Amino acid sequence: MYAFTSPFANPAGSPIRELFKYLSEPGMISFAGGYPASDLFDVEGLAAAQARAFAQPTRCLQYGPTDGLAELKTQIIALMATRGARCASDELLVTTGSQQGLDLLLRVLVAPGDVVVTEQPAYPATLQALRLQQAQVVTVPVDASGLDVGYLEALLRDGKIATPKLLYTVPTFANPTGATLSRERRVGLLKLAAEYHFIVVEDDPYGDLRFAGEALPTLLELTDEVPGSREWLVHFSSLSKIVAPGLRVGWTIAPPEIARRCVVAKQTVDLCSVPWTQAVAAEYLADGALERHLPSIKLAYKRKCDAMCEALGTLLGDEIQFHAPEGGMFVWARLAAVKTSELLPHAIAEKVLFVPGTAFYAEDADAASLRLSFAAPGVDAIEEGVKRLQRAMQAVGKRQE
Questions:
Q1: Is the dihedral of CA 253, 256, 260, 265 positive or negative?
Q2: What is the spatial distance between Cα 243 and Cα 229, in angstroms, rounded to a whole number?
Q3: Mean pLDDT over all residues of the chain?
Q4: What is the DSSP letter of 41?
Q5: Which of 165, 227, 234, 327 is 20 to 30 A from 21 in CA distance terms?
Q6: Percent helix / strand / coil, the chain, rounded to 5
């Protein structure tokens, strides 16, 4: 009846958001969505920031510049400096969440059939965006030290793939694996980008959520050590995981020629991100509220992560393998003898949610894998949720007997 464009003729929705219909069920414990803990929102700090922002109501209520309010860009530049990364105003674009940054970048750089490399497993919304852009997706495996840069180098050296237009990675506390790319691999990846001339997209929503181990420099910071790599690096970040996703404040840092084209693309999407929430974010950052509040978030997430890992190890034992992350929101796991797609209905019946790992694969999915988010539930709920997961696994075992 309708003549849809080919990417939308039969589009697949987010496999994670398909699970959200179960969240309204009474008593449900969710390890599914990567939601920050609502009880950790700095409500008082944000309310005070909003009051200061609205002291200049025109700034909040009128259209704003497409690339972002000047005062917010100033604060983001200062925030990036605390992370060890330099950034100029003409490299910076404020976006409606970092997901919009990815959408704009794909629109200005990736044509149908272009090769794009992603880590595997990968963030599902990225895979979804690449499919809609009709890119040719090539995957590189991930281990406990992040993206296997040696594997990527072999692909490029042997000519097994065409030079990619870009490569997407979450190098710090990756979604879904929680893995962190080692410093050696970070430098190696930047060297490959400079040699082969492909753009590395560094998505960094979780970097400030480190609660164990030693901090590593971002790829953006490391471009100062790798000659010629800065022009091949695009960096995304966001306030969603460290302040509140409802602000919808993210940003893109890119070479000026890329940033300028993303601004033009954004003009056709929303003209500008919401000036009101931009002004609130600017006031919140200028006040130092984020710096004051982050320690409490990291401490809470450490306790939750420890509780989940201890419960998984104690209750499931040899039935599960997982790597304890040093930060972020996720534990990536693999079951010994159960397909997680078969486990999920039993888990829902036991009132606990998780995301089957198949949602994070572009190809050759591991049917025994799953992602568990420890961020939103409390410690008691985490412990109870793992008990429910244990009962669900027992129910699958009885069916298989």
A1: negative
A2: 30
A3: 95
A4: S
A5: 327
A6: 50, 15, 35
